[in-house]
Design goal:
It is globular, with a radius of gyration of 24 Å. A hairpin with a 7-residue loop joins strand 14 and strand 15. Helix 6 packs across helix 10, helix 8 packs across helix 9 and helix 14 crosses helix 16. It has two domains: 490 residues, ANL, N-terminal domain (Rossmann fold); 123 residues, 2-Layer Sandwich (GMP Synthetase, Chain A, domain 3), CATH 3.30.300.30. With 661 residues, the chain is α/β, with parallel strands linked by helices. Belongs to the ATP-dependent AMP-binding enzyme family. One of its GO terms (molecular function) is ATP binding.
């Protein structure tokens, strides 16, 4: 039997020899210097205490950095007090930066709104007064169900200002998903809107809220007392007098003065639900002081933020953790000027993002591999029409980025000079954990490379032994970090069981990883996406990467389908680049690509079947739903597709495959 804990056949990823050292000019001006690693290594806790004091304003200074006596529940900076909204907004005004633009909003229809830090302070204070007047007190939960609007940021900060943990539910989730999240958190108030603009039309949001809190037989009455409704589209809405309140009317009537509620560092800042592969969603709990510290620290160093001159744009929705840490808390605590955009990258045309970059002279762009690959599929000529020379740092997050997509991002978007930071982290980690540092690290296409200064990560085998360079296994975090989750809302046991029981006393991330000969870390996808074919472990990512490296292929998704003989067999779904798609013969494509994978990785990795499709099923956060593809691959009825961004995709795939190759 082969060694089962070693993902095999990673040669095509690990023979990546291209590296891109920082230019002297970039290195000279960079926030990060090599000494940062040395300082953190010399005094782990002292390093974090320094960051907390330098980057965050405390009402009462902390005297203790870490209390790990109740592990795995950490307490960071526990005797300090602070307020997250004060840090994100007020202190910039107090320190004379009130006129700086905080948010540059671009609506999908093309409407814009510019909000300075001073204006943001007034809006957040008003909203905090409104929430208090509705009976929301410190510790009460508020659900936010909104599109990407200025009000979404204001709503989150207003909650933080009064010490009420927010639970943002992505606007694309269904009424049922919203209902279960409201119930789990026993929230008092929902903040929503009439609707939002998506792909050129107004799409309603409030009906889902009405449905989520309507009485349902056999279920206890909803905990929701009030619904605050932002008017975005002006569409008709059903109204429950007494319960429903217009946001704009309430804010207009509210006082602009508000004193922030100072909270302990360990006071809950937010809950964010994330789905496991099965079971009910987990409410990941984050607290205030440690989270803010690491959000600000990572944002400053990983993106090399110069708050006076940069224009930062993270394309994530506030419904995901990336929107929490890298749209709201990180950038605002650092006093950044940022763009927020309501819509999709192709509304009204496929150059919309690049048009926004040109218009606002965006200098730091943070987005996801799936978006990069989509733009790659649309063709170089689209970004080619715009002036992207303002871009100086490019970020990637959410899934492993294929070397070819990385190279495209660097060449076409970054003009062959902007450093790319491939950032690995999770909802649970709260902030970036593994990433190159621009100006210090020589970057490698496809690798997240190095734990940040202050973060201790490793790759271990089944028995928790660190693997040598060149080896593969599981990614773990061996030391507590400030932004780590403090639990799963209402379920301490599940928290311990999910993350801390696989390896005693260390955090199990659920990702497969490999260390290359330089000790750099390569993420290989979730361990639940790792396939086992005839006793060999194969990474879905690796095969996808091999497929995408063929000139015909724009995008690929690979699943392991159950197989009586070999355990699993590899099934690939590919989207061809448009120039090849027209007259491709499926049989010939399949033969060609199977051989290509065999050549890139080895015969063991050859997909049993390769199916040419026109779309892939993706969640609204852009993750490919392999579970649904596995259903197709195993000739099953396709399972629950309700969290897909576009629910018609599965019908399209299934109908296109009526006669499997
Ligand atoms: C994956 C998103 C490879 C990983 C911030 C992780 C990545 C999961 C990367 C968390 C990356 C995120 N390279 N894989 N740079 N970033 N992942 O909670 O599998 O939505 O466990 O947080 O995304 O997803 P989540």
């Amino acid at each position: 039997m082969p060694q089962d804990n070693q993902p095999t056949g990673l040669e095509n990823l690990l023979h990546e020899t291209r590296t891109f050292p920082p230019s002297d000019a970039f290195a000279a001006q960079a926030n990060a210097q090599p000494e940062l690693y040395e300082r953190a290594a010399a005094d782990h806790l002292g390093f974090w205490a320094e960051q907390a004091k330098e980057l965050v304003t405390w009402k009462t200074p902390f005297t203790q950095t870490l209390d790990w006596s109740d592990a795995p529940v950490a307490r960071w900076f526990a005797d300090g007090t602070l307020n997250a909204a004060y840090n994100a907004v007020d202190r910039h005004v107090v320190e004379g930066r009130g006129d700086r633009v905080a948010l540059q909003f671009e609506g999908e229809p093309g409407d814009t709104r510019t909000v300075t830090y001073a204006e943001l302070q007034r809006e957040v204070s008003r909203a905090a007064n409104v929430l208090s007047s509705l009976g929301v007190a410190k510790g009460d939960r508020v659900v936010i169900y909104l599109p990407m609007l200025v009000e979404s940021v204001v709503a989150m900060l207003a909650c933080a200002r009064i010490g009420a943990p927010h639970s943002v539910v992505f606007g694309g989730f269904s009424a049922d998903a919203l209902r279960s999240r409201i119930a789990d958190a026993e929230a008092k108030v929902v903040i929503t809107s009439d609707g939002g603009y998506r792909r050129g039309s107004a799409s309603a949001l409030k009906p889902a809220v009405d449905e989520a809190i309507a009485p349902r037989e056999g279920a206890p009455a909803s905990s929701i007392e009030h619904v605050l409704v932002v008017r975005r589209t002006g569409q008709d809405v059903a109204w429950t007098p007494g319960r429903d309140i217009w946001w704009h009317e309430a804010l207009e009537a509210a006082d602009v003065q508000h004193t922030p509620v100072w909270v302990d560092a360990e006071h809950p800042l937010f809950i964010l639900y994330t789905s496991g592969t099965t079971g009910k969603p987990k409410g990941i709990l984050h607290t205030t002081g440690g989270y803010l510290t690491q959000a600000a620290y990572t944002h400053k160093y990983v993106f090399d933020l110069k708050a006076d001159t940069d224009v930062y744009w993270c394309t994530a929705d506030i419904g995901w953790v990336t929107g929490h840490t890298y749209v709201v808390y990180g950038p605002l605590v650092n006093g950044a000027t940022q763009v927020i955009y309501e819509g999709t990258p192709d509304s009204p045309h496929q150059g919309r993002w690049w048009e926004i970059v040109e218009k606002y002279k965006v200098s730091i762009l943070y987005t996801a591999p799936t978006a990069i690959r989509t733009c790659m599929k649309w063709g170089d000529e689209i970004p080619g029409k715009y002036d992207l020379t303002s871009l100086r740092v490019l970020g990637s997050v959410g899934e492993p980025i294929n070397p070819e997509a990385w190279m495209w991002y660097r060449r076409v978007i970054g003009g062959d000079k902007a450093p790319i930071v491939d950032t690995w982290w999770q909802t649970e980690t709260g902030a970036i954990m593994i990433s190159p540092l621009p100006g210090v690290t020589a970057t490698k296409p496809g690798s997240a490379q190095t734990p940040l200064p202050g973060i201790i990560a490793d790759v271990v085998d089944d028995d928790a032994n660190p693997v040598p360079d060149g080896g593969g296994g599981y990614l773990v975090l061996t030391q507590p970090w400030p932004a780590m989750l403090r639990g799963i809302w209402g379920d301490l046991e599940r928290f311990k069981d999910t993350y801390w029981s696989r390896f005693k006393g260390i955090y199990f991330a659920g990702d497969g990883a490999k260390k290359d000969e330089d000790g750099d870390i390569w993420l290989l996808g979730r361990v639940d996406d790792v396939m086992n074919v005839s006793g060999h472990r194969l990474s879905t990512t690796e095969i996808e990467s091999a497929l995408v490296s063929h000139e015909m292929v724009a995008e690929a998704a690979v699943v392991g389908a159950a197989d009586e003989l070999t355990g699993q067999s590899v099934v690939a779904f590919v989207i061809l680049r448009s120039s090849f798609a027209k007259d491709a013969d499926p049989e010939a494509v399949q033969a060609l690509l199977r051989n290509h994978v065999a050549k890139e990785i080895g015969p063991i990795a050859k997909p049993r079947r390769i199916l040419v499709v026109s779309e892939l099923p993706k969640t609204r956060s852009g993750k490919i739903m392999r579970r649904l593809l596995r259903d197709v691959a195993e000739n099953r009825v396709v399972g629950d597709a309700s969290t897909l961004a576009d629910s018609s995709v599965m019908a399209l795939i299934s109908s296109g495959l009526a006669a499997p190759a």
